Amino acid sequence: MSITVRAPAKINLHLGVGAPRADGFHPLVTVYQALGLCDDVTVTPSATWTLAVTVPDWMDADAVPAAGDNIVDAAARLLAEHHGIASQAAVSITKSIPVAGGMAGGSADAAAALVALDRLWELGTHDDDLLRIAAELGSDVPFALLGGTALGTGRGERVERLPDPTTWWWVVVPSAQGLSTPAVYRRFDELSPDTPAEPTDARAVLLALSTGNPEILAGALHNDLESAALDLRPDLADLLELGESSGALRGLVSGSGPTCVFLTPDADAARGVAARLSEHHDVVLVTNGPVAGAHAVSYG
Ligand code: ATP
């Protein structure tokens, strides 16, 4: 028996960041969107725990932690502990989501592993328990389960589905070198010592989503971490400018970066922007959102 579960990358259409809380986490008000750039996690029965990772040729395989340190190990452990069973399976991750790219690829793998192992071990875990375990694994993991477009609050782990009937077309440009999320938050704290406790609200993006108009959404996109990411990676400013002068409605650093995403008017425009960016960047991807959260794509 083998089960493959697919889980999407996320971008933040709005990322409002408040001053750090007493527990060290930054309070967030964010609007997540799941993009059609996905990792697959395949699980098969095994008497021991094994983990294999496959990456596309443009990705550095060494950037993905091996068994023992991978977030998928932690996902398996928490799920098994919840049910009082041993965590044994042969797991294989096929990556497409940039590593340390601000697109929550590790979180996607954790969510996919929870869904896949729940089926493999025939646990029938209640959705609420799965979401709680997901939140323990990381702030972005609950959203990777949910998918679509959602409002995230708390440290991003409290998710609430949002209506978003439009298909939005994006061009995604990963970076060869990842950025550490904690380092970007540290830089944010240094650059913005007077940040209010309450993060900026997502009203403009919520309104834009309801119009279905990409030009209006482009004007509403907001990322409080962008200046910190650009401070650590000044080269990204040139990339954002190049995308916008190549026909994108707006370029944005994805979450903590360094991946940059470009909103375009439609599929044809996205392909045009991607063609022009490809003259300067090795890896340029065209995708759309919103797409489904972690779901089985093969079972048998
Ligand atoms: P964050 O979720 O912290 O915003 P990110 O989206 O920028 O992170 P990820 O691809 O999730 O980036 O990777 C963050 C770190 O998580 C990596 O540097 C890596 O060391 C670790 N990691 C653990 N498991 C995985 C995995 N399955 N895939 C990718 N990275 C993983």
Topology:
Layout: E1 3-17, E2 28-44, E3 49-54, H1 71-83, E4 89-94, H2 105-120, H3 127-137, H4 141-146, E5 149-153, E6 158-161, E7 168-173, H5 181-191, H6 203-211, H7 214-220, E8 222-223, H8 226-232, H9 235-245, E9 250-253, E10 260-264, H10 267-278, E11 285-289, E12 295-299
Parallel strand pairs: 1-8, 3-4
Antiparallel strand pairs: 1-2, 1-12, 2-4, 2-5, 5-6, 7-10, 7-11, 9-10
The structure holds adenosine-5'-triphosphate (ATP).
Description of the molecule:
With 300 residues, the chain is α+β, with helices and mostly antiparallel strands. It has ten helices and twelve strands. The strands form two sheets. Strands 1, 2, 3, 4, 5, 6, 8 and 12 form an eight-stranded mixed beta sheet that branches. α1 runs parallel beside α2 (105-120) and α6 runs antiparallel to α7 (214-220). The longest helix is centred in the middle third of the chain and has 16 residues, at 105-120. It is globular, with a radius of gyration of 19 Å. The termini are close together. The mean pLDDT is 97. The structure holds adenosine-5'-triphosphate (ATP). Residues 64-65, 70-72, 93, 99-107, 109, 138, 140, 178, 181, 255-256 line the site of adenosine-5'-triphosphate.
Task: Summarize this structure as a short list of keywords or feature phrases.
single chain, 300 residues, alpha+beta, 8-stranded mixed β-sheet, 10 helices, globular, binds adenosine-5'-triphosphate
Binned, the helix content reads: 25-40%
Biggest pleated sheet: 8 strands, mixed
**Terminal-residue CA separation:** 5 Å
Radius of gyration of CA atoms, rounded to a whole number: 19 Å
Assembly state of the chains shown: single chain
Molecules bound to protein: adenosine-5'-triphosphate
Overall pLDDT confidence? 97
Instruction: Report the sheet-strand fraction.
Output: 25-35%
Q: Return residue spans where pLDDT drops below 50 for at least 5 consecutive residues.
A: none
List SSEs in N-to-C order. EEEHEHHHEEEHHHEHHEEHEE
Helix/sheet category: alpha+beta
Number of helices: 10
Overall body shape: globular
Strand tally, please?
A: 12
